[in-house]
User: Fold this.
Amino acid sequence: MESRMAWRWLIPASMALLGACRSAPDPKGDSGTDTPASPCQPGTAPEITDFAVNQGDPVAKGPTLLVTLNATDLDGDLQEYSVELWFDQTIDDKVAQAPEQHIEASPVHLNVIACGAPSISYEMQITLLGNQVLAFDTLYEFAAVLTDAAGLASTPVLTTAQTPKALDER
Assistant:
């Protein structure tokens, strides 16, 4: 009978000792291990890795330009982003960010979890409608800026492109 009682107390006592030997949780959440920081840490601006403006396929309304842009963001918050373009006719490695030389695309909302989009590929087609915004058959310098979900903007990138001729001039 005594041996049964000893076992009855030995198991709970062992469990209590095991619990007492575990390290207490760190209130700061630091596990003490050398794990890398989460890629979802906010605070990094996106980087445009490729930017091009080329003649696109014409549509019924007129000739088009095809804007392509690839970008990365270390904190992965490209699940929402916006692209802004500026243009001018002075090829000098800078583009004035004037309202009349500005094209703003609709914001993009991807169907991914927050911080689940560390890179994007973006395309936008611009239809040329006479000389209303961009003139036909003209060399322009374009600048692009990408803003991520946290509102951080990329460094502007530049490229040049010749707009297509009017459809009736082809």
Summary: The domain at 47-169 is CATH 2.60.40.10 (Immunoglobulin-like). DSSP finds one helix and eight strands in the chain.
